Amino acid sequence: MIEISHVDKWYSPTFQVLTDCTTSVAKGEVVVVCGPSGSGKSTLIKCVNALEPFQKGDISIDGIKVNDPKTDLPKLRSRVGMVFQHFELFPHLKIIDNLCLAQEKVLGRAHDKAMTKGMALLDRVGLKEHAKKFPAQLSGGQQQRVAIARALAMDPIAMLFDEPTSALDPEMISEVLDVMVDLAREGMTMMVVTHEMGFARKVANRVIFMDRGEIVEDALKDDFFGKPRSDRAQKFLSKILSH
Amino acid sequence: MNYHWNWGIFFQPNPMGTGTYLDLLLSGLELTLETGALAWIIALVTGSVVGVMRTLPSRSASWFGFAYVEFFRNMPLLVQLFLWFFVLPELLPKSAGLWLKQLPNAPFWTAAIGIGFFMSARVAVQLQAGIGSLPRGQKMAATALGLTTVQAYRYVLLPMAFRIILPPLTSEFLNTIKNTAVAITIGLLELTGQARSMQEFSFQVFEAFTAATLLYLLVNAVVVTAMRFLERYVAIPGYITGK
Question: What are phi and psi of B158, to 5 degrees?
Answer without folding.
Answer: -65, -40
